[in-house]
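for the writeup, i need someone to sanity check this before i put it in the appendix. the sequnce is what the collaborator sent (i think, or maybe the updated version? ugh). structure was predicted straight from it, no edits. if anything looks off just tell me and ill rerun, i have time this weekend
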Amino acid sequence: MTTQEQRSAEGLRGAEEQGSAREADGGQALAAAGGLVFPLAPGYRVKVRQGPSTDAPVVRTLAEGARVQIRCQRHGQRVSGPYGTSDIWDNIAPGQYVSDTYVHTGSSGMVAPVCTS
């Protein structure tokens, strides 16, 4: 590799690192604004429920390709979905929960604070 090619590769790596830092800062800004935003599993219309259980009444159904803002999370009924099996439920609005197994958070654990109420 020539010196010019090395400088170009280093420049690309630096730009990628700066982009990653901006994404991390954006995530923190979203968290400070009230929650993190994540996409639903592709091809699914997800039911929003009043509580963290499939026995809880359905409030509404989210469209395919929707994104949700997770305000907080809590443990509830264990559910299987496109992203595995979990008892984590995401609170997306007051009295509105979706199973975390339908939300692409990139984690099998909690990514938001535990709901207090």
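The chain has a mean pLDDT of 80. Helices lie at 3-32.
thx in advance!!
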